Amino acid sequence: MNYDIAIIDRLSGTTEGQRATNFRWLAQQGEQTKVEAIKLQTDLIRQQRQQQGGHTMSPEFGYAMHALAVQKMVWLETAQKRKGGRLSEEEFAKVQEIRIDRILAKKRRNKSSPKKDIIRVRFYHLIVKLREKELSWREIADYLGTHHKIKLAHSYLRESFNELTAERQKAGV
What is the pTM of this model? Predict the structure, then answer.
């Protein structure tokens, strides 16, 4: 994997450090903003292809356009902080959408508990079978503790199982 970083630098107009900072910024954004970055990247690719006569896309070119799109988004958001940074109504509305999306993304980031992850991955189907055999939640918790060496409270097991079942139904699984 020997990619020409000079091409990326030239096409995106950014350095490796700037790209790293911009991608960290993008990682903190919500899904809507990330999709907006891809949309902007696609628009930039189309513009470049029209200017260059439709050349094939290299990995460096695609990455450079992504870096340029993120650079433009960061620049747009920080324009108000710069001296003389004036935004049009449309740009200001876009900045507000990005900021709102960031707040909503932080709100949606729920850390799953390790025990719930274990239930999801290792024991969900086993619990379904045990419930079909009409075992109580307390009996299932005892079974898992005895045979699988995982200690779970019966109430937590029931609560987690019901949440996971709702997630699966919502996802259509």
Answer: 0.54
